[in-house]
């Protein structure tokens, strides 16, 4: 009956396997992942499926979908192939989503971590700055930034990142405030670990799961923001982004609906895939889940 | 069982199923237990033994359908509880069975006054009018000896002390004069002196009303204090049951014997001649106040003095116990000497080198000599790091090459009696005692001269506690370590510490060799602490554990 407490339990399965098992249980998340893979494949295979510049003249303007073999999804008013635009646009949308998310999460983590870890005056100052950003509607700020710096694709991506860091910052700050009081932080300080290492190597890995989940939301909004800019005619005209396509299709919306609806569907499905995956990640990373 | 006594609660062949995939299919197995009128039955077991589930089953509060009763019967005064409808069961709860929980702060609604919460019980279960209910509530508050019941009636839970909150919980449980009270670790969260008063109160009220009490606990001291009969649970199986006297002094089952053997005896070690050893750690006139932050508009609150003029010295190979109740400042002491907290004034020196005024770089070098073992082995290990990284982290920061540090970490695992396979695992894969061993290995990796241990065993089961304490004592003697051991548990202090300092409200009220302080306490506070040790009159029998 006497059990010495030094006998180990059988080893736990690797973390990645456990996470995948939990993710898989959420069917909607698996659907989201499938959609996401399709978008990634579209971006990767754009030059194979629809070779050539997507902005070139490829057929009679305003061809309806499924009527001509060369332009299966139809053409817009300048005779550009819509299918080619969607496939190449997937690259732009994904790139914008990923880069803008990285920028916003990176700023958010640094500001939130420093504010949450040090607290006091540092926290006060940083949070006032955050609030200043939060009081201005992010899209208005985005318009202002693009109006000032010009609408090249790099500027748009950076501007989207800059206007969307506040929510991740507050989230990271809240996580840090609760984690910094844990004993393992004291234990690390007691070993002589420096503040920077404590923030980034001890606390941050524990604070990441909710941020990763939130990143999927940021990515979806980043794509939507770029589309909205393009819709208003502020996108980068040198790239075939989905937003640009909707913006230009708007002029012929009543006669040729497909010019706006097809890229609109692409945006809808991509954003949906991110939200669904976010849900699944939330389930997978939730520490209260047993299996 | 005890002749004339009428049986109130009768549990027969109870079996509780756990969901598939758990560590065992049944939480309880063939569980038989009776509680008679005016009888206190203690259900004892370590964590995971299923003792709390037994209580939930009697209240029909199991988290069904995952966990459910698959066999057996529970009857209260002859009524089969398992066949009642949910509606009928609601009338039974509170009215005929009441429950007292471990943590009174979370069991009381913080938004409502004490009076409102007692009133609610009466409103739901009686037809008394408002004035009668209030009179009854104040009467019961008087019965549980709350000072100034009328003002306590209007107080919110956070406005009264922990002990008083537990009294309120007891008042709520008793107000309807139930037949049976189930008390789930009701004193575990309380200080010893408060615990003693609460235990006395439970016993007194139970004799007055003839209530049957099912008392769930892991603490044999408490058991010795109040039990009439004892049932011992191990992994869902009832291994032994019988009158208190018989189980405490002549246990039969090996598991019970092991549990009782693990209870630290109250006889401190003989005085060691320590005066020849050099002083390793010295603290002089330490002082720390916590400034209470007032709100923007609210007035300033008075600062709290956590530590006042604290002076002590620790010699090589010696163990100094810092004992006291919560709020006495003992944890603050452990954080100041390791400089996790900045002291307001005073000096702490290790081998003559001052740690309080050390610069960042000097401090990093000094940290090597003074290491800490924390209270909560779950919270003090970073969940995202492997064990070997956790142990090697300190030496790597001190400039030891990674390979050497990892190799040394693996050696340390065997020193703390963990298998080498533990190195590549994450903290969540270990039990509480094993985690605490990892915490000790981490402290030892720095080859410190002093280890500060802040309640290192208070989160552990008693048998594991004994193993960890033995390990600490063994390492101390082998490596000539000095230990500063902070604890609230005087039994633990008696086992391990050569000297103790007793703290109350930030001040040392008494200091000296443990044997002398325990045998002949001078200060009234020390005396009341020693008197409050549960089961003081019971000396655990010396048992050979097979």
UniProtKB/TrEMBL annotation, chain A:
<dbReference type="Pfam" id="PF12911">
    <property type="entry name" value="OppC_N"/>
</dbReference>
<keyword id="KW-1003">Cell membrane</keyword>
<dbReference type="GO" id="GO:0015833">
    <property type="term" value="P:peptide transport"/>
</dbReference>
<keyword id="KW-0571">Peptide transport</keyword>
<comment type="similarity">
    <text>Belongs to the binding-protein-dependent transport system permease family.</text>
</comment>
<dbReference type="GO" id="GO:0005886">
    <property type="term" value="C:plasma membrane"/>
</dbReference>
<dbReference type="GO" id="GO:0055085">
    <property type="term" value="P:transmembrane transport"/>
</dbReference>
<keyword id="KW-0813">Transport</keyword>
<keyword id="KW-0472">Membrane</keyword>
<keyword id="KW-1133">Transmembrane helix</keyword>
<dbReference type="InterPro" id="IPR000515">
    <property type="entry name" value="MetI-like"/>
</dbReference>
<dbReference type="InterPro" id="IPR025966">
    <property type="entry name" value="OppC_N"/>
</dbReference>
<dbReference type="Pfam" id="PF00528">
    <property type="entry name" value="BPD_transp_1"/>
</dbReference>
<feature type="transmembrane region" description="Helical">
    <location>
        <begin position="139"/>
        <end position="167"/>
    </location>
</feature>
<feature type="domain" description="ABC transmembrane type-1">
    <location>
        <begin position="90"/>
        <end position="278"/>
    </location>
</feature>
<dbReference type="InterPro" id="IPR035906">
    <property type="entry name" value="MetI-like_sf"/>
</dbReference>
<feature type="transmembrane region" description="Helical">
    <location>
        <begin position="92"/>
        <end position="118"/>
    </location>
</feature>
<feature type="transmembrane region" description="Helical">
    <location>
        <begin position="211"/>
        <end position="234"/>
    </location>
</feature>
<feature type="transmembrane region" description="Helical">
    <location>
        <begin position="28"/>
        <end position="46"/>
    </location>
</feature>
<protein>
    <submittedName>
        <fullName>Peptide/nickel transport system permease protein</fullName>
    </submittedName>
</protein>
<keyword id="KW-0653">Protein transport</keyword>
<feature type="transmembrane region" description="Helical">
    <location>
        <begin position="255"/>
        <end position="277"/>
    </location>
</feature>
TrEMBL record, chain B:
<keyword id="KW-0813">Transport</keyword>
<dbReference type="GO" id="GO:0015833">
    <property type="term" value="P:peptide transport"/>
</dbReference>
<keyword id="KW-0472">Membrane</keyword>
<comment type="similarity">
    <text>Belongs to the ABC transporter superfamily.</text>
</comment>
<dbReference type="Pfam" id="PF00005">
    <property type="entry name" value="ABC_tran"/>
</dbReference>
<dbReference type="InterPro" id="IPR050388">
    <property type="entry name" value="ABC_Ni/Peptide_Import"/>
</dbReference>
<dbReference type="InterPro" id="IPR017871">
    <property type="entry name" value="ABC_transporter-like_CS"/>
</dbReference>
<dbReference type="GO" id="GO:0005524">
    <property type="term" value="F:ATP binding"/>
</dbReference>
<dbReference type="GO" id="GO:0005886">
    <property type="term" value="C:plasma membrane"/>
</dbReference>
<dbReference type="GO" id="GO:0016887">
    <property type="term" value="F:ATP hydrolysis activity"/>
</dbReference>
<dbReference type="InterPro" id="IPR003439">
    <property type="entry name" value="ABC_transporter-like_ATP-bd"/>
</dbReference>
<dbReference type="InterPro" id="IPR027417">
    <property type="entry name" value="P-loop_NTPase"/>
</dbReference>
<dbReference type="GO" id="GO:0055085">
    <property type="term" value="P:transmembrane transport"/>
</dbReference>
<keyword id="KW-0067">ATP-binding</keyword>
<keyword id="KW-0547">Nucleotide-binding</keyword>
<feature type="domain" description="ABC transporter">
    <location>
        <begin position="9"/>
        <end position="260"/>
    </location>
</feature>
<dbReference type="Pfam" id="PF08352">
    <property type="entry name" value="oligo_HPY"/>
</dbReference>
<feature type="domain" description="ABC transporter">
    <location>
        <begin position="281"/>
        <end position="530"/>
    </location>
</feature>
<dbReference type="InterPro" id="IPR003593">
    <property type="entry name" value="AAA+_ATPase"/>
</dbReference>
<protein>
    <submittedName>
        <fullName>Peptide/nickel transport system ATP-binding protein</fullName>
    </submittedName>
</protein>
<keyword id="KW-1003">Cell membrane</keyword>
<dbReference type="InterPro" id="IPR013563">
    <property type="entry name" value="Oligopep_ABC_C"/>
</dbReference>
